[in-house]
Design brief:
Length: 85
């Protein structure tokens, strides 16, 4: 496990792709923070606009040493990212 990085997941608990992303992070033993916007659709709309991403989940990687946070993408992008590492 790379304990320098944690993942930040913006999504909804009723979204199967969001649940799959969380399960993948758990399976790979990665630290993560999940922000559930099920009850706040306006916040999801704002995040989609900010990250120029149309779907959830929206996943970011945060280096806890440097503080640098980078946008990963959605579930497929997360799968690719984790398979590269």
């Amino acid at each position: 496990m790379d304990n320098r990085n944690r993942f930040i997941v913006y999504g909804r608990t009723n979204c199967s792709f969001c649940v799959d992303a969380i399960n993948l992070l758990k399976e790979k033993d990665h630290e993560y923070c999940f922000f559930d916007f099920t009850e706040d659709p306006e916040a999801i709309t704002d995040a989609k606009s900010f990250y120029k991403w149309e779907t959830v989940p929206m996943i970011l990687k945060n280096n806890m040493v440097t503080g640098i946070t980078s946008f990963v993408g959605g579930l497929d992008s997360l799968r690719e990212h984790l398979n590269e590492g």
